[in-house]
From TrEMBL:
Cofactors (names): FAD
Start and end residues of each RsdA/BaiN/AoA(So)-like Rossmann fold-like domain: 5-386
Classification of source organism: Bacteria, Pseudomonadati, Pseudomonadota, Betaproteobacteria, Neisseriales
Pfam families: HI0933_like, HI0933_like_1st
Entry-linked InterPro entries: BaiN-like, BaiN-like_dom_sf, FAD/NAD-bd_sf, RsdA/BaiN/AoA(So)-like_dom, RsdA/BaiN/AoA(So)_Rossmann
Species this protein is from: Chitiniphilus purpureus
Protein name, per record: NAD(P)/FAD-dependent oxidoreductase
Amino acid sequence: MQTTDIVIIGAGAAGMLCAATAGARGRKVVLIDHAAKLAEKIRISGGGRCNFTNLQVRPECYLSANPHYCKSALARYTAQDFIKLMARHGLTYHEKTLGQLFCDQGSGAIIQMLKAEVDAGGALWRMHTPIEQIERLDDGFMVRTAAETWRCASLVIASGGLSIPQIGASAFGYELARRFGLEIVPTAPALVPLTFQPQDLWSELAGVAVPDATATCGRTRFREAVLLTHKGLSGPAILQISSYWQPGQPISIDLLPDRAITEVLAAGNRDALLANVLADAIPKRLAHAVVAALGENRPLKQYPAKTLHQLEERLKRWQVVPSGTEGYRKAEVTRGGVATSALDSRTMQAKTVPGLFFIGEVVDVTGWLGGYNFQWAWSSGHVAGSHA
Ligand code: FDA
């Protein structure tokens, strides 16, 4: 049996930041991952440009049974800290909408930067290495792989969530937490497209994008683009609201926020066909489909107020009840996870199992779309790396 200070399981975003932080403190680290390729999730993120953080990070942008849990870690390692790290490696970024920061050099450069930081701390890499056994010892843990057995004082679980099983996601972290008696908040796909029953679908509208819409579920509302798909709804506003949606709940969509339909129609030519007038405000295919649902497309002046009111209902208070989601294969993240009540928010350590830490997506902290999830991975990884 070989000895090390820390074994980290999962060499993704959180695991690498943790390994780099612990290594910089002089801790001996072994980083184990069952995937052959390093950090595939970072590679595919942000369309290959990695939306690595958000300038508007704040605790309200995270879902968790304990909304306060993320505060300490987010305050201790901020978006600016990660930006400084990038600057040290000569990496630059640009801001897209809503504070989202993307790496100019692409996601591969972020992976190389993190790898270099881990190497600088002297950690040992064990890629393509499944875990065969973990046991608790009097003074730490035993971690066995096919080729080696490690004894370590601290064990950090950074194995991520269930999304995108094709590139290595597994339930490992949840199962281990359960084995050690920690509670798991039920998991579900989040930041995921919503699906509908075939009879409720709008296949003729698949591909229509409404650039500015609101999606409301309960008391939560997001305003961004909505995309109509062959299976249902997608686009940023829908992905965001999907994290809050519970099966059976209706979602209300306003396809024309800030404008009343009466205002759009008042600005139109009364002799023009209704669909053409509407097409000044919403995508043409959508305008035609909405009018077709009301009957024949006639000049605006021929419509009674009652019909125009129906139009208002359909476009500004469109109520839908999704039948489900596109699941973990399409979900950007997993909601739920290791209960924050079982962990110390200042260290990420399990309260009842000294030396055992959980970081990143495996924990019941789920960020909004737009760089929030990577920031949680960096922040929680840094905190654990400072204490493990
Ligand atoms: P992560 O999934 O990164 O790493 C977990 C690691 O553990 C993996 O390397 C895996 O192979 C390993 N592992 C799993 N089970 C194991 C086992 N049994 N044994 C050993 N190793 C095991 N977020 C964001 O903020 N901005 C963005 O632009 C995007 N974009 C994006 C696009 C797509 C398509 C997806 C799917 C996700 C995003 N995300 C995102 C979310 C972001 O990728 C995610 O929140 C973080 O990668 C989570 O970091 P972790 O380190 O916790 O898990």
